[in-house]
Amino acid sequence: MAEQNDLIRLSAAAQADGLASGDFSSAELTAAHLDRIDAVDGDLNAFLHVSREEALEVARDVDARRAAGETLHRLAGVPIAVKDVVVTRGIPTTAGSKILEGWVPPYDATLVEKIRDARLPILGKTNMDEFAMGSSTESSAYGRTLNPWGEDRIPGGSGGGSAAAVAAFEAPLAIGTDTGGSIRQPAAMTGSVGVKPTYGSVSRYGLIAMASSLDQAGPCTRTVEDSALLHELIAGHDPKDSTSLRDPVAAFGEHARRRDVKGMRIGVIEELEGEGFAPEVRARFEESLALLEQAGAEIVRVACPNFRYALGAYYLIMPSEASSNLAKFDGMRFGQRIVPEGGATAEAVMKATRGAGFGAEVKRRILLGTYALSAGYYDAYYGSAQKVRTLVQRDFAAAFESVDVLASPTAPTGAFRFGENAEDPMAMYLNDVATIPANLAGVPGISLPSGLAEDGMPAGIQFLAPAFADHRLYEVGGALEALLEDSWGGPLLDKAPELKGGAK
Ligand code: GLN
């Protein structure tokens, strides 16, 4: 049997190959990851819940089926972590909120059903900003998650738990959700890979909705190919989601292995490379572009003038939709119920439950959204934001007439320190400036590491493609990853400091 430390450092694709050729069993592989979680997650806090027994049971079942000669899914037996905003039958699901403490869903999200059908052991549920609102995971009601690259650093958000789990070798695969960047930005902060698929290509059934017109689940991994393989697994039409697409799912894994960018036209978004972006982040971005150019890609500058209004539009549309989606947490149906002393009318129970159950950021956004939707202000705020959304979509459409993909740094800076932006919502929101346009337009995006920026923290580069052209992200991402790893002499995560540990 290979050393445990070797097993957990393999990519998911290599783990799948090792299982198929009998080098190790899924029970060994799953136990190795659970042991890693036990050893380091006490400090890291990437997991809110670890489902050790269930995961090992699935692993042993995969091993037995393989031994009996059954044909299995390529990723069968490869363990996975799931962001806690995705409902899992029999496994507690809180969306990082006190209001859902103790809730055990009676059903699976469609993407979880697919994961279970393909027999990937689910290691547990990962930490996140409460109801996916945030860019640092500091707004989780269950404590912060550390960035494996530095204990004083945020892992990004809202899906900091999923990104930290893959970057710390606790899981080779994780699920995230991206409403305004929550897969891509944590990937950038932790030196990992994250993909937001085309809106509607992965079912939203069973995601605890934040902003329904923006939410999209996708893969968090350490390699581009692993994201491609996980994307293939979770995508596809679902009659339970009215916005689910009917298009067939492409063989993304093959695209990731193609590694050919000759003749590919890459547009650098002028509005997302200059002011506000840290010098080292920009330098890594330029170096990545130079490598792609040497490999035969054509780099052009593209103007997307309305992107400068995207952040403002997002922070009206997102809270508006969230204020409506979160109305169902009323102390009657799910999780917590707080009955105030004295008369317990339904209204008093709702008020007490929501007052105690929601954190400050969630309350801020409910207020913002309710205000933006109120009769007197609807046109001025929500209506205007929707017009901006159309303009952003037109910018994308115009850009994609002349280029195959667009590129920008994923986030303006590397991982910042805990507390640095926590008191100032505007500073926190500004971190999403590069990721939000894709959500407003429904187009797909990938983030992969571009190198180390200020303070030795990872920086990310993002590529965006037209809707339904997700495969282009894997082509350019796979090519750049190979070029960069050649220049670094191995994966960026090999340079991450050894985790000190701290038992769970
Ligand atoms: N950081 C963004 C926000 O706070 C994005 C969140 C997300 O994608 N879920 O809204």
From TrEMBL:
Entry-linked PROSITE patterns: AMIDASES
Highest taxon, organism lineage: Bacteria
Residue span(s) of domain Amidase: 28-473
Swiss-Prot/TrEMBL catalytic activity: L-glutamyl-tRNA(Gln) + L-glutamine + ATP + H2O = L-glutaminyl-tRNA(Gln) + L-glutamate + ADP + phosphate + H(+)
EC number: 6.3.5.7
Keywords: ATP-binding, Ligase, Nucleotide-binding, Protein biosynthesis
Positions annotated as active site in the UniProt record: K83, S158, S182
Record bears the keyword Secreted: no
Free-text function comment from the UniProt entry: Allows the formation of correctly charged Gln-tRNA(Gln) through the transamidation of misacylated Glu-tRNA(Gln) in organisms which lack glutaminyl-tRNA synthetase. The reaction takes place in the presence of glutamine and ATP through an activated gamma-phospho-Glu-tRNA(Gln).
Family per record: Belongs to the amidase family. GatA subfamily.
Subunit and partners: Heterotrimer of A, B and C subunits.
Name of the protein described by the UniProt record: Glutamyl-tRNA(Gln) amidotransferase subunit A
Organism: Brachybacterium equifaecis
Gene: gatA
